[in-house]
Amino acid sequence: MNKKKDIILIVLDTQRANRLSCYGYSQTTTPQLDQFAERSTLFLRAIAPAQWTIPTHASIFTGLVPSQHTMLQMDSILPVEIQTLAQRLEKEGFKTIGISNNPLIGTMGNGLERGFSYMKNYNFWGAGLLNFRLNHHQITLQPSDVIKENLKFIAAESLGYSEQTILSKLKSFMPFLWEAFLSLRRKTKFDVTRQSLVDAAQLLLNKREKDDKPTFMFINLMGTHVPYAPPRWAVNKFSSMISNQRQFFDLRRRVNQIQVDVNNWVDCSSLSSMDAEALNVFYDAEVFTQDLLLGEFFSLLESHGKLDEAFVIVVGDHGDHLGEKQQINHAFGVYEELVHVPLIIRDPQGVLKQGSKHKALVSTTQLFNTILEVAGAASSDEITGSLRQAKDFQHLSEEKRESVFAQGYPLEWALRRLKKGRSEDEGKALPHFAVYEDKFKLISAGDRLSLFDLTADSEENMDLLVQFPDVAIRLEKSLDRFLSANVPVAQNTTLDYEDSVIVEHLRALGYLE
Fold it and tell me: Which neighbouring-strand residues pair with 271?
């Protein structure tokens, strides 16, 4: 009997496919992933089932689409009737380890942590100052813990994460002091991301000799998620607009202000050309620095002979608007900037061939089936949905081509923020659904339909609904059948936020008001 392989699932939070150089981006943002892809299978048309973190991770962890698992909002809880990927693998004898830079996975108690025997969260920069107790759900606190909590509360107030005390008036002066302090303590986003990958590698490498249990390692990285905090040298690689450290701090603060301003999420047309350039430069710099750290992680595993032995997946959970369609962030919609994600798989068994590029439409929901198949834990139906069974459909007749779907349910907390700043939400309150078939993509939002030919128009600028009404009708029927068939599998419940530290941490990342 063959020994089961370690399985490593790396989720790049908020990573667009079209900003990786291995996906054709004009800037060399991902030299390490480019090299990794040369010995892996690169899926050119991988589609996320939703536009933000919780539903996309829930789909990867369950194999269900958002309307089935019902993890649609910040306070959603995964129904107990649904078994997670980690639970399934744990039953198959896997050691299940989670390393997450995102508090939405592992600290919320929303069910996404189920099945992990070990789950650690890493936090950084402004958000990182509020990481106390995120990894330790204590019922009672020691006196030293209370002191630490109060000190972090004071620091949070000083940085302006809330406006309850007079300390918030100091927020314009604090970033410089806090930046210096964090640099001395190596608590920058770059360093914390590096540390999380080093710890992940050590957990994979430092197995006991008699421990023959395979490992399932889940890693979430937030390198391209706000708040942006790339090193200055990384920003300089993509732009010459920064000449000194003060200018760097000012510009970084500006791009983060742009990102968290809810008005920009639906209309950023008033941004200056310099703002738009800075936003894209900082995103590219974050992609580059994260790629550098991934290269270190892969090199460390390879130097110990572990990389070739493991089944490794690198995937984006969703993307981000950076001014396209006059939008910022990823709260609404299902445009390509949000749901077309990178997917690269290194298969030591060679079922997925090294150096190949897969052209068929696939959904990241299929990672559930794929991992279970590799683990020898999949049913016959689940094997059918594995990406290792996928084929390119270019030469098949239309009735045999498979469709892929995305469900962009609006975030209620984002709508509340939007209503405070605007008189109307411009249709953002409606769910946005997408169905893909071959080169065509249909987007449905209420009574409005839009049709795009992604082969000729990858940026979705030309609506072809009038030119191809028959295609639109066919895809709309396909979407209706999909939504009718994929109803909730169990009753959903919601979280009741009680931990003030977690709430402030989520606010620092822009998840809450």
Answer: none
- For residue 71, being part of any structural domain is answered with yes
Task: Kindly state whether residue 2 falls inside one of the protein's structural domains.
Answer: no
- CATH code at position 198: 3.40.720.10
What tokens does 18 get?
């079209």
The whole-number average pLDDT for the span 464-473 is: 97
459 vs 6, 325, 339, CA distance in Å? 38, 9, 12
Closest CA to 306 of 373, 374, 372, 207: 207
Q: Which domain holds residue 490?
A: 7-129+187-508
196, 256, 377 from 218: Cα distances, Å:
12, 28, 17
CA distance 45 to 30: 18
Cross-strand pairs, 494: 76
Query: In angstroms, rounded to a whole number, what is the distance separating the alpha carbons of residues 343 and 317?
Result: 10
Six-digit token pair at 254? Answer: 């500006």
- The DSSP call for residue 251 is H
In a domain, 90, yes or no: yes
User: Within this chain, do residues 168 and 207 fall inside the same structural domain, yes or no?
Assistant: no
pLDDT by residue (tens digit) across 410-459? 988 888 877 765 545 567 789 999 999 999 999 999 999 999 999 999 99
Sign for the CA dihedral angle at 105, 110, 113, 118 comes to positive
Residues 445 and 330 in one domain: yes
- In angstroms, rounded to a whole number, what is the distance separating the alpha carbons of residues 196 and 219? 9
Structural domain count, the chain: 2
The first and second tokens of residue 411, run together, are 């975030």
Residue at a domain's end among 154, 184, 214: 184
Q: Quote the radius of gyration of the chain (alpha carbons, Å).
A: 22
Domain stops at, among 184, 218, 251: 184
Rounded to the nearest 5 degrees, what angle is found at the Cα of 211, between the Cα atoms of 208 and 215? Answer: 100
Global pTM value = 0.88
Chain mean position to CA 274: 27
Burial of residue 276 (number of CB atoms within 10 Å: 0-12, 13-18, 19+): middle
**DSSP SS3 for 409:** coil
Beta carbons within 8 Å of 2's beta carbon, 6+ residues apart: none
Q: Which token pair is 138?
A: 């204590």
Are 345 and 450 part of one and the same domain?
yes
Residues 174 and 314 in one domain: no
Confidence class of residue 39 from pLDDT cuts 50, 70 and 90?
very high
For strands 41-47 and 356-363, give the pairing. parallel
Say whether both 303 and 354 belong to one domain: yes
